Amino acid sequence: MTEIDGLAARLRSALGPELVITDRQELRTYECDGLAHHKVVPAVVVLPQNTAQVADVVRACAEAGVPFVARGSGTGLSGGALPHADGVLIVTAQMRDILEISAGDERAVVQPGVINLQLTRASTPAGYYYAPDPSSQQICSIGGNVAENSGGAHCLKYGFTVNHVTGLEVVTPDGAVTRLGGRALDPPGYDLIGAFVGSEGTLGVATEVTVKLTRLPETVRTLLAAFPSIAEAGAATSAIIAAGVVPAAIEMMDALAIEAAEAAVACGYPAGAAAVLIVELDGPGAEVAAQFDEVVGRCEAAGAFEIRIAADDAERALFWRGRKSAFAAVGRISPDYIVQDGVIPRTALPEVLRRIDELAAANGVRVANVFHAGDGNLHPLVLFDDTNPGEADRAETTSGAIIDLCIEYGGSITGEHGVGADKAKYMPRMFGPDDLDTMQLLRCAFDPAGLANPGKIYPTPRLCGERPGRHRAGETADRDGAEVF
Amino acid sequence: MTAIDELTRPANDDDAVGGVPARLVATPRSTAEASALLAATRGLTVVVRGAGTKLDWGPPPRTLDLIIDTRHLSGIVEHAAGDLITIVRAGTPLAGIDLPDQLLALDGPAGATVGGTVATATSGPRRLHYGGVRDLLIGITVVRADGKIAKAGGKVVKNVAGYDLGKLYTGSYGTLGLITECAFRLHPRPRHALFVRAAFTPDAPARIRGAAVVPAAVEIDSASGELAVLLEGTADGVHERAVALEKLLSGDISEMSPSWWGVPPWPAGGIGVKVSVPLSAVPELAAGPDPVRGSAGTGVLYAAAAGRTEVERLRARSVRLGGHAVVLTAPPDVRDILDMWGPVPGLSLMRRVKDQFDPDHRFAPGRFVGGI
């Protein structure tokens, strides 16, 4: 019996055989996440139902020295939940209870498998919603959002997952269950919640999450502005921000992305637009009214040739349908494509887009641009046909060169999709050796054996070495889980 | 002369932390110089000092060889107005960051520096709308205990590349290394602001939340029984919301904040406590025997305690309500017999973090939770 067989047997007896998958065909269901061209079949998949079972699995992995990878809904786009061939994949999708919604505390307590949009739907009757809204919100899980520090179109105004998590229960890589924070802000000690959110499953598994709920805005107003050029749409974005307006969202699509969206969902955007902006404002009625006039004026001044204002929720949904479908829609106009995720300072937008055009032309591929213009988060879609020899390589080259552009302009290699397996190789271009070494000190504190999602984020793992904790005279005893006295 | 002699001067009578005198003081002028300093002084224990406005916060260090004073690590490195970000050196006074039309929405005592504000994660009235230090900090440069310079985050607001070490350093009380530069997101400076002042009633915070007026701050002072709400935005928007709140709370619209707004309730040299509770527990906390002042909007409030008994009563109450109470400052005789931090879930993980970042416990030994 191999080590993995022994581990699988132990997991079967701990969780019950129906929650442990070792059949090769069934395992293949889990071979990739949303980044479908990276595939690894895991050795074992477990479907824990509760925290105790997650802790059992992680403890068993720790004792056997077997790596583990946590997976929520598997919608991630950087291969963060890519399995380990000799490891255990811990799927949290069955832990999907909303444990509490407290309007009085403006908090919800959820299990990690709860779907992002479900939480918003469950909070709406009380007058609240969950603000972080990744485009995959209909299927992505809160646990995955915690791992990736997910953003979304509306994080320009409302922030990312990390700004909304106030409490976590985590299973650390030694199998211990630790509770951090809760409903109140600022628990004493290091901000381990802030460090854990966005750590892409490398510090442990979140098994319960306490999040802020946001009051539903009194008013939401949305406009769609069509521009004859990308540069003018970029200028409009800068002008809106310069006017002191913080919209809930400013999204941009270029002509190729619009073409794809039209083909897929017939969103009916203005014909002949080289770029469209979707600008959404929310808040108190009088505030929104004044700012909306300002936004309309700035779009007109920047050269918008048509501005549509959503008359109702249905029309707003139509504006958004084109944008939210854009990634998948590109499949209508290209057999293959790479979704890129990079960030630049917003003011560099027109210049960077011009250089992306040059890159595409030089490499003989097409690039459709969809982005969160308000915060400079680009999502270029590099289109190619894998049946044409060499085209996939040229697309990959283009996609990588776009990331280099983001770094050159002082931005980031990822704004919301994460580093995962896909972008670890770019980390040394954005950070120096000492930066990466220092980040991994945190990894060593949580996971000295390096079993939690190994091979992700950092291209070169740090050897943690033995660093026994020092407990000098004067240090008080551990009071983990201390009770109310 | 040795490297240490070149980089430091002997301490004088003012160079003490919590009554513990230092031997040496250094005032590095750059991150590189700070790096050389920390590399040259291995084995020496260090406390970082900004303007010293919160040097009495936290327990005193167990030992102290060297004070690193950040006064010469000062100035704005970059202000990209169009991108709504700024990068500032740690020793820069908050008051010195005066950006036209834009706002770095950090609250701290008069004179406080950027580094001290980040290291203690101060929390003031505007946190409700703008977020706290952890929400505004987007990038950080630190010098480690071994002198190595490390950066995390960056200068764009949206960025998930690598661990966000800025969060870890925020509120770490100088125990993980020397912060030398911070990048922050900025907000447009609001064009108009009004206060609505009213009597504090137990149901007022919930009614304000229910009114969807999006206040920038909701502050209460239970000793005076007052409540004040700050509204910011456009002239029309602020006025309309203020009128609605004035009616809702039977209050008065004012252009002036109350005198207690953002002012710590404890006297100089007294016992200052920071209390945080879930939002629904704020009225019960405020109804207790210990007066509190602070944000009913975020649940982070402050109290002055007369002595150890009051601290323990307040802490027991806060913990029972689902929150925490941390003693920020206390006179030496009280401090020595108090547990300033209270119960700390996750402490063993925190010790492991400290052991990794500062294996010899050079930085502020004993100043943080559990004697870290």
From TrEMBL, chain A:
Cofactor: FAD
InterPro entries assigned to the protein according to its UniProt record, in alphabetical order: FAD-bd_oxidored_4_C, FAD-bd_PCMH, FAD-bd_PCMH-like_sf, FAD-bd_PCMH_sub2, FAD-linked_Oxase-like_C, FAD-linked_OxidoTrans_Type4, Oxid_FAD_bind_N, Vanillyl_alc_oxidase_C-sub2
GO molecular function annotation: FAD binding; oxidoreductase activity
Region ranges (Disordered): 466-485
Domain of life: Bacteria
FAD-binding PCMH-type domain sequence ranges: 38-216
Keywords attached to this entry: FAD, Flavoprotein, Oxidoreductase
Name assigned to this protein: FAD-binding protein
Organism listed in the record: Paractinoplanes ferrugineus
Origin organism lineage: Bacteria, Bacillati, Actinomycetota, Actinomycetes, Micromonosporales
From TrEMBL, chain B:
Residue span, FAD-binding PCMH-type domain: 17-189
PROSITE patterns according to UniProt: FAD_PCMH
Keyword Flavoprotein carried by entry: yes
Alphabetical UniProt keywords: FAD, Flavoprotein
Coiled coil: none
SUPFAM superfamilies: FAD-binding/transporter-associated domain-like, FAD-linked oxidases, C-terminal domain
GO molecular function, a single term: catalytic activity
PANTHER family on file: D-LACTATE DEHYDROGENASE, GLYCOLATE OXIDASE SUBUNIT GLCE
The protein, known as: FAD-linked oxidase
Lineage: Bacteria, Bacillati, Actinomycetota, Actinomycetes, Micromonosporales
